[in-house]
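ok, trying the design again with the full structure, not the truncated one.
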């Protein structure tokens, strides 16, 4: 069970281990060793002695990714054993790879500590022998430690640092792409909501007039009344079709033969009120304003338009008053219509029209209220006259 739990070595690690072992066997067969048998450091002079540290170091290569610290620890002990034999250059090379892998694939703590430890050993390994022996040749020991330990450790740290930087850059790119997708989805949602408000505000007024006058034409057996009603129905049908053409023109990628009409402005309130009067409403307009930013102008126009539509559908007989006034940095829109509680379960300004008006005011940073009081239904919107050119249109 314990063997089954051990991680399977990577294919490249297996190739390195087999290649190192075969290379070391080839050098041993050719009699190429790191030291001569007469060297005083050679304490184990058996001909096959270098093969033991070679085999163990090659086996440690199987752990270079999965258990790098264990591989480095065993490899260090094995390299020490190799120094008392005639030695093998392949064993030293395999050990440098174990040092490199321990920094590259080990824990962050190991990646920080190993280069420092090998650096200290390199300095001590050169300074201490030179000082004790009083011979500059002692520095060569430090150079050897630096080549075998510090150089591969430093190389592993550099490679690991570059990999971590590349991974961080990849994660940042993914986060940026995710944020961009979220922004795109929010923009699509906002655009859909804007077009829904536009469609509702443009068509509801005309359809409401058509419905009311068609009902009158069907219920009254009077040719003159029916003729007048059909005239109003035709007028509202033509105007509604024109508004739809304008919206379609805005949505088209290219204008083609349907050029969108100009965006409604507050200068068109008089014509809007006249249309409401033609539909049977008694409307009074009180307008006084200067230059108004385009988004605020459109929002105010649509709020008045929707309020008149609701008054046409739900208001009690009486005068509907429309007030559009500018004071300081605020444009105030107020529409009042007669209202008797209990006349209809659908109060004036309720439903999607009320939601659309509130959204228009909120998107511009303004306020919106609608409610009944003293026999009147009052819709009131306060729109700030700041630079809102980037706002909804």
């Amino acid at each position: 069970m314990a063997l089954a739990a051990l991680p399977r070595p990577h294919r490249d690690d297996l190739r390195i281990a087999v290649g190192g072992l075969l290379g070391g066997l080839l050098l041993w067969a050719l009699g190429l060793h790191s030291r001569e048998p007469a060297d005083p450091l050679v304490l184990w002079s058996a001909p096959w002695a270098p093969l033991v540290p070679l085999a163990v170091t090659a086996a440690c290569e199987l752990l270079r990714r999965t258990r790098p610290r264990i591989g480095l620890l065993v490899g260090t002990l094995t390299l020490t054993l190799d120094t008392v034999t005639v030695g093998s250059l392949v064993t030293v090379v395999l050990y440098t790879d174990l040092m490199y892998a321990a920094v590259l694939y080990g824990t962050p703590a190991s990646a920080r500590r190993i280069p420092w430890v090998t650096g200290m050993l390199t300095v001590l390994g050169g300074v201490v022998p030179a000082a004790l022996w009083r011979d500059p040749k002692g520095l060569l020991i430090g150079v050897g430690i630096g080549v075998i330990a510090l150089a591969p450790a430093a190389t592993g740290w550099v490679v690991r640092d570059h990999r971590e930087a590349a991974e961080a850059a990849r994660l940042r790119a993914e986060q940026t792409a995710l944020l961009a997708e979220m922004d795109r989805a929010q923009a699509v949602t906002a655009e859909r909501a804007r077009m829904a408000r536009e469609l509702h505000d443009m068509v509801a007024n005309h359809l409401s007039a058509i419905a009311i006058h068609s009902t009158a034409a069907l219920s009254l057996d009077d040719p003159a009344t029916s003729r007048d009603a059909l005239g109003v129905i035709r007028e509202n049908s033509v105007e509604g079709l024109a508004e739809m053409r304008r919206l379609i023109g805005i949505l088209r990628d290219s204008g083609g033969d349907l050029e969108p009409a100009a965006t409604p402005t507050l200068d068109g309130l008089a014509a809007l009120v006249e249309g409401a009067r033609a539909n049977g409403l008694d409307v009074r307009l009180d307008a006084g304003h200067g230059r108004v930013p385009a988004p605020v102008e459109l929002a105010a126009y649509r709020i008045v338009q929707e309020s008149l539509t609701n008054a046409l559908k739900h208001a009690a007989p009486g005068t509907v008053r429309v007030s559009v006034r500018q004071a300081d940095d605020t444009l105030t829109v107020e529409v009042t219509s007669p209202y008797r509680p209990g006349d209809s379960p659908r109060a004036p300004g309720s439903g999607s029209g009320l939601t659309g008006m509130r959204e228009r005011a909120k998107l511009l940073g303004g306020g919106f209220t609608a409610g009944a009081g003293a026999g009147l239904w009052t819709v009131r919107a306060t729109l700030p006259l700041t630079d809102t050119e980037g706002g909804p249109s």
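Keeping the full-length input from now on. Strands lie at 282-288, 319-327, 330-338, 367-373, 376-384.
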